[in-house]
Amino acid sequence: MQRVILFFFLIISVNLLSSCSSQKDTFTNRLYHNTTARFNAYYYAKEKILELEKEIENEYQEDFSQVLPVFYPIDSSTVSAKEDLLKEAREMASKAVDWHKISKWVDPSYFLIGKVDYYKGKHEEAQNTFKFLNVNSSQDEVRHVALIQLLRSFIDHRQYEDASFVIDFLSKEENISDENKQYLYKTLAYYYEARGEMDLMAPSLFKSLEYTSSRSEASRINFILAQLYQKSGLDAFAYEYYQKALSGSPNYERTFFAQLYSQQVAELERSKDLKRVREYYDDLYKDNKNVDFRDVILFEKGRFEKKQGNLEEAIRLYTLAAKEEGENERQKGYIYEELSNVYLNEKEDFLKTKYYLDSAISKFKETDKNHGVLAARKVIFDQYATNYELLTYNDSLIQLSQLSAEEQEKYVDDFLALEEERLINEAKMAEEKKSQGIFENLLAFGGGGGGSGASFYWDNPVAIQRGALEFTQIWGNRPLSDNWRSSDRGFQEAANSVENNIAVDEPMEEAEENSSATITAKLPDKNTLLSQIPNTPEEREKMVTQMEEAYFNLGKLLYFDLKQSEKSIEYLEALIEKYPETLKKPEAYYTLFLANQDLNINADRYAQLLNQEFPNSQFTKSINNPDKVSGSQANLASGENYKVAYGLYKDRAYEEAKNIIRKTLDEYPLTKNTDRLLLLDIMITGQLESLEIYKNRLQTYLQQTKEEELLAFAEKLLNAVSDESEEVAEENAEEPDENELPSDISIVKPEPPAEVSPYKEGLNQTHIFILPMNASLAETANDLTASLESFHNANFANQRLRTGTISLGKDTSILIISPFSSAEKSLAYKEAFLNSFNNDSLTEEIKNSSFVISIGNFQQLNKRKDIEEYRSFYEKAY
């Protein structure tokens, strides 16, 4: 009996050993390899890929203010962090191919290898694998899923012609499994999403739902369908699908937004019972389950109030929303962006606009659609804030300087006493509010549309002004400065600037909040405050000069960048009134002429003043000769003339050079070459006229030009003739030092500054695509923007591009598309734009005028407002 058993086991062992061969095609061999491949190598490889896909889903933060993407975007950083998963998946799938060649799991394992390459960004290798399976696999299910994955890869890379071919091929295939049908229809929805054909997404998503077995997946698809219907204005359908999205155990975030949006489309937007609508938002806020979404609730209620015309109530609610704790930083960005828009468009308060823009940008990533446009807009408001704050700061301190020393000390003592009292009171208020807890917040939130009494903190202007310290204590040191809401920024600003370290800028520790001694210890030092007051004529003169520059800069900024003609006139007229001898008067007159011309009031007055007071000014010539003011042709012609004149200057043909320069300045008064031509003309003056005239012209030039390299060169010229007497100059002329600029310019001629570009290479910086437009085209920018949005949805859906328009001068606006993480990606966009984007308002010439620019260089461009100058750099750098 034992021999029989032993013989039996021997037979089994021989069969098992023989079955280990990966080539021998027997029933036992196939059974072994099929079983081993499926439940070992293939199983583990698939699990690793599923684990990565789950990680991509978990790491992606849904933006419910936008239509959710069909597929979760693949974040390269997430993939890089999970590199080991892909490595293990490839190793296991490769073993299934190499060790089990006769099993039916070889082709499915090849498919997994293709997915590994797909997630690693090796798209060409992945596509080749999927194509190979389509041609060589005998398993329909593998062929179909490979084709669907190939289709998704084509859509990722906007290879729409190839994608259409695959769609057509799959439409003729039979026996597609339900699982593959679900994936196919979802990929079709992705195809229409990428092309911006949002209306065609819904039918594909409906078909995908028919074959979706996962209730969680069905919930998300229903939510997307609801968003599409809401965007189309089909509120009844949107409500139905938001309700369906609540099924399938969605996470609480999606549940919250489904409930919120379903109520909005069902009743809230159309309801005439405003009290009931407000109570609905109040109830949402009070629900403890919604603690993480209180910022959203406040924000949505604020939007509702704004639609009802209750702007102040909307601002109050937006401000509360910004203070609420929240998990989604992007949501805070939307809140601050909305506040910046309110203060820009409704309030025309550009200082607050600037600070809210700062806060908004800090909440968005560079890859977010909003970031690039907001960063470009912020440049303008940074300039505004710098000049406005300098003006108010200097004005306050100069007023204090008019007081006697005793009066100054008394003023500072009174100020410190008031500050001490305020800080102590604010600390007590903070303690009281902490003890009241959530009930105080609920009271502050509840109420009607802005009609609450002054007993509420946020309805009391005095309490708002005093709330800066409490804001910092409770919410931390936010990007907004503590007292920027105050219209009276004067001496308070002076105190707050001391050593950049002031009590109200630092949140107190809990143990210090009730300590008056600690609070008073953080007050600015009296002597330090007194030292800020300009008590010498030199200090006052310096501040007065700074104010002169600020008045001028604000006037130009308000007119050319912010399109505020009336405010521009106010600052420029103040400049002329306060500084009647200012060297900036010609340009101020010129800008006043343009601003008054836009308002159809008394522009001729400034044309007459220019002709009377500054008949030879380039700005006077510009008004008298408006057809040749600027433009690419004028820039080109003036540039060519400059080269000729400079050549004559080097050959000492001074009179001929001067004639060419004067003729050029008459024909083309304001071009990018004007300052350079003027400096060359001054240098010719140094050869032909007295030293005194030469010095005076240089001094005037230094007050008027803005180009840094020209300023530096002009200063060098002036220093050369100012530091030494004429006798010393003559001595130096006999033996000029080759390494220094000679003082006697009549003997040795200084070279004009080289064409040093103010722009720097930054190919790895975030980039912006720019399309310059004239005024008439800018008026139709909304239609153009809509066309571009469709183009982006069709070709760059994953990049989340944003479009905006800002002014770059009186007659030029620029359309901005951003962000691009590098120069390479922005140039790829430009190529697609030139080849594929069509719009009736855009000629080929306008399209070809487009260019890309880094964020750093954009700040220079916005400051200099000279597109042709940047193009010279662009053609070399890109």
UniProtKB/TrEMBL annotation:
Pfam families: TPR_6
Region described as Disordered: spans on this chain: 724-758
Keyword Cytoplasm: no
Leader sequence residues: 1-24
Key words of the record: Signal
Ranges of Acidic residues composition bias in the record: 724-741
InterPro entries xrefs: TPR-like_helical_dom_sf, TPR_rpt
UniProt superkingdom: Bacteria
Protein name according to UniProt: Tetratricopeptide tpr_1 repeat-containing protein
Source organism (scientific name): Cyclobacterium marinum (strain ATCC 25205 / DSM 745 / LMG 13164 / NCIMB 1802)
